[in-house]
UniProtKB/TrEMBL annotation:
Residues 2-87 form the MHC class I-like antigen recognition-like domain. GO terms for biological process: antigen processing and presentation of peptide antigen via MHC class I; immune response. Keywords: Disulfide bond, Glycoprotein, Immunity, Membrane, MHC I, Signal, Transmembrane, Transmembrane helix. Belongs to the MHC class I family. This is MHC class I antigen. Its main location: membrane. It is found in: Membrane. It comes from Carpodacus erythrinus. It comes from the Eukaryota.
């Protein structure tokens, strides 16, 4: 049958320059696994996701998530904020 895999990421650029963020994954409409940027660890929602957590930790997937949340996501955020500023100036 058909299955769904939903990924949601968020980053917040704070005034002191620090970044807060998260990365969450859902499977078939349920929470599956999330990535905690503060600890650099995966948090499985259940025992099935524990298998994925072990595999991702072994494959060092956390490095990619950390890079995305600390660097790529804030860069995109800054870019879109710049677009917003330009749009507001035109009005």
């Amino acid at each position: 049958g058909l299955h769904t895999w939903l990924r949601v990421s968020s980053c917040e650029l704070l005034s002191d320059g620090s970044v807060h963020g998260y990365y969450r994954v859902g499977y078939d409409g349920r929470d599956f696994i999330s990535f905690d940027l503060g600890s650099g660890r995966f948090v499985p929602a259940d025992s099935v996701a524990e298998i994925t957590r072990r595999r991702w930790e072994k494959e060092e997937v956390a490095e990619g998530f950390t890079n995305y949340l600390k660097h790529e996501c804030p860069e995109w955020l800054q870019k879109y904020l710049g677009y917003r500023e330009k749009e507001l100036e035109r009005k």
